[in-house]
Amino acid sequence: MKKVLAVIGCVFVLASCTFVEPEFRGGESIQVGKIDGRDIQITAGAKIYNPNGYGIKIKPSTLDVYAGEEYIGKVHLDKKFKMKAKQETSIEAPMTATLAEGAMFRAIKLLNSDKITLRLSGKVKAGVLFVSKKFDVNETRTLDGLDLGLNFQ
Description:
alpha+beta; 2 helices
């Protein structure tokens, strides 16, 4: 009986934990690696602050990518990474982008634009210990068309 009460108590404690979304703090970079058909290996770097009192693991997730209103494809986080509690973490996240049909031509056309609005949309899976939760992501960034900060390897 004591074990059952302990398990129920743990469930209530874990369920009552609040989660504050991490915030981007700049240092964003993109390195383009191997291009294989419609798949592109990318390493994205950023500084992210975790305001929570506990460390978080961001697990492999897939997001949709839009340039303006046009669907470009999907990007998949290939490896999980950890963020320490109440600290800013510099991450280098390996990703695989899978372009939609005809997206390469649309992307080349967009590079000639003065400004490009990129939007990532979908769910990201995050976890603490053995508890995981999916969070909605809808991040938008406006970049200079000719200066995207892309580094080709």
